[in-house]
Every structure is written in C-alpha cells, then in structure tokens.
Amino acid sequence: MDTEARAVREGVAAFALLVIRGVLLWILIPVGFVLWLVIFGWSARVGLGNFLGWLDLNLTAALQRALGLPTRTTGTLRKEEFVPMRLMQMVTHRIHIVRDPF
Predict the structure, then answer these.
(1) Mean pLDDT value across the chain
(2) How remote is the C-alpha of 85 from its chain's centroid?
(3) How sure is the predictor about 24, in pLDDT bands with cuts at 50, 70 and 90?
(4) Is the model's pTM score more than 0.90?
(5) Residue 77: in which H helix or E strand, if any?
(6) In this predicted model, what pLDDT tens digit does every residue of 71-90 receive, in sequence order?
(7) Residue 102: helix, strand or coil by DSSP?
(8) Cα–Cα distance measured from residue 38 to residue 23, given in angstroms and rounded to the nearest whole number
(9) CA neighbours within 13 Å on the CB side: how many for 46?
(10) Can you spell out the DSSP letters for 21-68?
(11) Is 59 exposed, middle or buried (0-12, 13-18, 19+ CB in 10 A)?
C-alpha cells in the first residue's frame, strides 16, 4: 500500500504543479514580454522565445523546490535544475499551450 500511496501523492503533486504553473504563466508571459522589450529588445543576442522559455524553466524549478514536488521521468524522480542567465541563449524550451513539464 505504500507504493499506492506514493503514486497518489506523486499524481496530486504533478496536478498541483500544472495548475499553479498555469496560473502563474498568465502573469509571467506579459511581464516577461515587457521585461524582454526593456532589457533585451534592442539586442539581437536573446530572442523572445529564449527569454520566455528561460523564465518558464526557472518557474518550474522554483515551484518544485518551494512546494517540494519531485517529478517522474522514465521511472526516476528528479527536480528541475535552475538555468543560469549566462545559458539563456542556448535555451531551446518554448512555452506551449499543452506541454508535459516533466
């Protein structure tokens, strides 16, 4: 029964992460767009997709740490790592309407 309880907890944690992340993205995307215009809009070094993807990856990592929500990836539990600002240009992640953040 311990494995069943663990599976239920992991399912609830994943659902909570998706709901909280979804609500916060409604705030993060408009604010991130304005920040990108102010900070990087004049520069071709960082594109809007890179910047918003970087914000989303770090939001997911922060939520996992703040709420203590590990996620399942191919049978193992892991936490997302924060992406440093210096690696922002290499971010290939993009925000999608439906995306599995795990």
Answers:
(1) 80
(2) 15
(3) very high
(4) no
(5) strand 76-78
(6) 555 555 566 788 898 888 88
(7) coil
(8) 24
(9) 22
(10) HHHHHHHHHHHHHHHHHHHTTT-SSS-HHHHHHHHHHHHHHHHHHHHT
(11) buried
